[in-house]
Structures are given as C-alpha cells and as structure tokens.
Design a protein that fits this description.
Blueprint (H helix, E strand, L loop, with lengths): L1 H18 L2 H20 L5
Helix pairs in contact: 1-2
Amino acid sequence: MSIVTVLIALVVCFIAWKVLTGIIKFGLIAVVLVGALYFLSQGGFA
C-alpha cells in the first residue's frame, strides 16, 4: 500500500505544480510530502 500512497502524493504534487503559483505551490507540495511520510511511518493502511 505504500506505493499507492506515494502515487497519490505524486499526483497531488503534479496538480499543485500546474494549478498554483509562487510560494503557495512549494508550501503545498511540502505539506503533501510530509503528510505522506508521516502516513507511511505510521504503518500506512495496515
């Protein structure tokens, strides 16, 4: 299930990259990556 989490994070980052501009884009991407890492460190969907 960790692959699914990574893919979802990548899709959200790609959408943020295309839609948002400036510092907000990088902030949201950072939040998504930190959230995905936290989710994976807690055991994912298990």
